[in-house]
Amino acid sequence: MNGKISEKIRYVGVNDLADQLFENQWYIPTGISYNSYLVTGDKIALTDTAAADFNEQFISNIKREIGDRRVDYLVINHMEPDHSALISSVRKLYPDITIVTNARAVPMLKGFNNVCDNIQVIKENDRLSLGGLTLEFHMIPMVHWPETMATYCIEEKTVFSGDAFGSYGAVNDKITDDSETFRLFRDDLIRYYSNIVGKYGKPVNSALEKLSCLDIKRICPTHGPVWEKNIPEIVSLYQKMSKYETDRGVCLVYGSMYGNTEKAAMALAGELEKLDIPCAVHDLCTENPSFALRDVFKYDILAAGGPTYNNDIFPPVRNFIYSVCSRLVKNHKFVSFGSYSWGGGSVRLMNEMAAAHGMELISDGIQFSQAYSKEKCDMKALAGLIANC
Ligand code: FEO
Q1: How many angstroms is it from 319 CA to the middle of ligand 1?
Q2: Which residue range(s) make up the domain with 305?
Q3: Residues 12-27: what's their mean pLDDT?
Q4: Mean pLDDT of 319-348
Q5: Are 186 and 282 in a shared domain?
Q6: CA of residue 141 to ligand 1 center, whole Å
Q7: What's the CATH code of the domain at 25?
Q8: 242, 197 contact by CB (below 8 A)
């Protein structure tokens, strides 16, 4: 692979195609990249590192780009171990290297990496000259951890943005985007955002405002493609997601033990289709929740089908609604349905959860006893309420 992004900026990241689950929970069928970059002035800075399994390849990538030249600075934008695991390895290779980061990262450097020395602590707007190139530092806390910062190379008009603007999906040899890249990665950008950063809409919005003051011609995130040609599109998408703005449509999730709630879900999906209302259906018992969360961030209505289980909500559905609520999702409407065998209660409990977290209930929901039938479940009427809300 050729890591040349520009004469002065080189890619030294790695693709992870072995892990099935990012953060040991989010399914990544097309892998993920851990991006790291060299900024090569008279002195050389490395931004972030990579995950623990990639030590040999990561070091080899650095050598490929700069040979025997020395890396002078290691800029730590984010301490999550998918980017910080190889700090000690880099220090071993370059014993005189200075770590450049902010005060909030310092205890994490000790806690995760047992690193306490050769640290240059910078703060908002501080600059670091590399000789011919200048790095400027901007704090973007909670995008995605409190210590997160972005590093801007003034002469290259390039921002190293951490997880912001990142995506699932391994990158190919040409890491910089082309006219098709945004379309190809859009779903994985939304999925990554909703899974990883989705709770932090307000801090993301503040970060976008801060970065909008910079003259940016290139965005180098820690995951996914480097953005040059699609910057208005990706910034616009982030602005929308950070405000929890969505398109008209339904994310229809369900869990079903014996197929009755599933039949109700399919009936609702069929009625929505007749009304030309976009609807994405997810079986929470067989599918990783990553994809349904993505569609919560795409569509303005969440429809949840869950039977009553131990006088509670069927756990896969309860867990999913909880994960939506914990992301502080706003501007959403909610409907629920589900079967029960004797006492019922899941529909009421789902409604209470959603309403307590600010979702607007479109109806009281539909709960039905034992087997599904059209007569017990008027999904046509429910779809009509959705169409008119
Ligand atoms: Fe890719 Fe929050 O680390």
Answers
A1: 23
A2: 247-388
A3: 97
A4: 97
A5: no
A6: 13
A7: 3.60.15.10
A8: no
Q: Residues 192, 252: one domain?
A: no
Name the token pair of 5: 């992004």
* pLDDT tens per residue across span 155-195: 999 999 999 999 999 998 889 999 999 999 999 999 999 99
Give SS3 for 335.
Answer: strand
Ligand 1 center–CA 209 separation, angstroms: 21
CA distance 5 to 363: 53
Angle 207-29-294 from CA coordinates, rounded to 5°: 45
Of the pLDDT bands very low, low, confident and very high (cuts 50, 70, 90), residue 276 is: very high
For ligand 1, what atom is nearest to the CA of residue 34? 1
- Do 343 and 226 fall within a single domain? no
How much is the average pLDDT of 371-380? 96
Find the 100 Cα to ligand 1 centroid distance in Å.
18
| Count: domains in the chain | 2
Using only the alpha carbons of the chain, give its radius of gyration.
24
Atom of ligand 1 nearest to the CA of 196: 2
Taking CA atoms only, the protein residue closest to ligand 1 atom 3 is 80
pLDDT at 203: 96
112 and 254 both lie in a single domain: no
Helix (H) or strand (E) holding 220: strand 218-221
CA-nearest residue for atom 1, ligand 1, is 163
**Residue 301 and residue 281 in one domain:** yes
